[in-house]
Amino acid sequence: MECEMKEGEMCVKREYAKEWLDEAELELPELERSLREVWHVNRYLGGNPALYAHMEKMVAKVDGGKVRVLDVATGLADIPVALLNWRGLRGRHVSISCVDIHPQMIALAAKRTSGYPEIEVSEADGTALPYDDNSFHIAICNLALHHLDEQQSVKLLSEMNRVASIGWIVTDLERRRLAYWSAKLLAGLVWRSPVTRHDGPLSVRRSYTASEARELLRQAGIAGASVHKHFPFRLALVGHG
């Protein structure tokens, strides 16, 4: 996929080097430490607000009953836990199914959600979800798209679109020069996990630009889906059932 880059934005081509989270069998304590640092990035640097901004409109379309949510590539399942206290779902009956392809992630997510009967955790591949069409009202995926190549990304988007009756949201980083140097700064001054220090800047270089994200939607053949930019350096790919 060719990349449209403006002067000062980032390397011309998307990086394909593997992140440590993808290629190494990490010890569970180190994996959990890194994922918690990622969670703080989500919480304080725009990841969660970008998700909530689009999800709130979708939740409003669920007429009574239980709101069924799917979280793909759930990691520590911090977002599902946060959703139970989010104002957009407060007071609603909700069930959240969390899936991840990595057994280590599933073990950590199951531990994290053991006290939440509304949350179910299982192992599944986001590019081949084991659910019927329209099994959920809303499907979400955060910070996983950049881990995939273009073909896998198209499959993920197609699967999200297939299983969600009301809509789906995929949020991720936006590949920009300033985003990369911001990640380098965090790696040098804030993050303590060597995994996060390595993967954080690389994640930006592996991420898509807005134009590349639109091309993924075109290849997936999803009519009416759109790409939104959020501060700072976040993309939200949004589709409606």
From TrEMBL:
Tell me if Lipid metabolism is a UniProt keyword of this record.
no
Could you name the domain of life of the organism this protein comes from?
Bacteria
| Gene3D superfamilies according to UniProt | Vaccinia Virus protein VP39
Q: Which GO terms describe its biological process?
A: methylation
Keyword set includes Transcription: no
Q: Which SUPFAM superfamilies match?
A: S-adenosyl-L-methionine-dependent methyltransferases
Q: What organism does this protein naturally occur in? A: Paenibacillus protaetiae
Task: Domain (Methyltransferase): give its ranges.
Answer: 69-164
Q: Which GO terms describe its molecular function?
A: methyltransferase activity
Q: Which UniProt keywords apply?
A: Methyltransferase, Transferase
Q: What protein name is recorded for this chain?
A: Methyltransferase domain-containing protein
